[in-house]
Amino acid sequence: MTTSLRRAFAFAALAALAACGGGSSPPPPLPPAITWNANHEYGVNSAGGGYVLSIDGGDWVYVPYVSGAWAPTSLTTTLSPGTHTVTLHAYAALDSSGGTTGPGTTSAPTQLTVVVP
Q1: For residues 68 and 91, what is the distance between their CA atoms, to the nearest angstrom?
Q2: Which of 39, 53, 93, 98 could potentially form a cystine with 88 if both were Cys, beta carbons 3.0 to 4.6 Å apart?
Q3: Domain presence at residue 102
Q4: Is the residue at 8 inside a domain?
Q5: What range does the domain containing 61 cover?
Q6: Which pLDDT tens digit goes with each residue over 36-79?
């Protein structure tokens, strides 16, 4: 193989590598997903139920039941790098006594720790 043919082959290989994205920086990381174990109470997993959570003592974020067997058990959000504390409650349309005075939490709060590198 001649020197000019080798150079042409090397150039074509580099062009193909660049075209497929080789050598570029990796994609940015995905936002973290906060996950938790499902609460098995009927009211949490039916209309008017779901979960409510607070990240680092901030505003409450509702994750309501939509359809299917279970209310969602995850939330994808944007968090800054570091350690975050999540307070989670399950809630239902019925209050804790089974009455209809309004939504009530059905469980003691759960504390989760999320670490974002």
Answers
A1: 17
A2: 53
A3: yes
A4: no
A5: 29-116
A6: 999 998 889 999 999 999 999 999 999 999 999 999 999 999 99
